[in-house]
Design brief:
The chain is 13% helix and 30% strand. The protein has helices spanning 6-9, 13-20, 110-116, 129-135, and strands spanning 24-30, 33-45, 74-79, 83-90, 97-108, 152-155, 165-168, 182-185, 201-203. Strands 1, 2, 3, 4, 5, 6, 7, 8 and 9 form a nine-stranded antiparallel sheet that branches.
Length: 205
């Protein structure tokens, strides 16, 4: 992979989710504050009428409108009225697919991340969708913005080598929970700790 572009995201969310593992999420928050980390866990969500666990299942709303494209943009929403969750929009405009970024392994700007996380460091820093958005200062202002340019963006991995990819059930759903649309890097400390991890199986790389 040499670069990320709109055609990269203009595909099924499951394909994109697999290839996003190892990619870097970068947020240039201030001149002296840049948060960078590698994506180690994601969940794919399909479009209208196809995935009961997806925000797009019942169609477009004011809240999920960014999810319907164009691809290569961020869909950011607030979960349970508490924390933001960041997604990458996939598929053709109007389809309503996205990939939730669930966990990130930080590589730059950790001191400021810890400050934003009220002193929580180590694996607790970014091992969950709400934790990583807090650490990376991602909020609803980024909803609908491009993931290919700007202060907040996604970049390719620094190297092609990566750990075994696991696929298993998504977390925290009441509908569509058993679909194996969650992908994560095996044995990575920043992956969400969940009993569902035992149900995950390795897939081809």
């Amino acid at each position: 992979m040499t670069r990320l572009n709109r055609p990269f995201f203009d595909r099924c969310a499951r394909e994109v989710a697999f290839e996003l593992l190892g990619c870097r999420i970068v947020h240039r928050i201030a001149a002296d504050d840049c948060a960078i980390g590698s994506i180690v866990e994601v969940e794919a969500y399909l479009g209208e009428g196809r995935d009961p666990g997806s925000h797009a299942y019942k169609g477009r709303t004011e809240r999920n409108s960014s999810m319907f494209g164009p691809p290569g943009r961020f869909y950011v929403y607030r979960s349970m009225g508490i924390h933001a969750c960041v997604n990458l929009v996939c598929g053709a405009p109007g389809v309503g697919e996205a990939v939730l970024v669930r966990a990130v392994e930080p590589s730059q700007g950790e001191a400021e991340m810890v400050r934003r996380r009220s002193g929580r460091g180590g694996r607790e820093l970014t091992n969950g969708p709400g934790k990583l958005t807090q650490a990376f200062a991602i909020d609803l202002d980024q909803d609908g913005t491009s993931a290919l340019s700007g202060a907040l963006r996604v970049l390719p991995p620094l190297a092609n080598a990566r750990a075994t990819v696991m696929a298993g059930p998504r977390i925290g759903l009441t509908r569509g929970a058993d679909l194996p649309y969650r992908f994560f890097l095996a044995d990575n400390a920043y992956v969400t700790r969940s009993p569902f991890n035992r149900r995950a199986r390795p897939i081809g790389c």
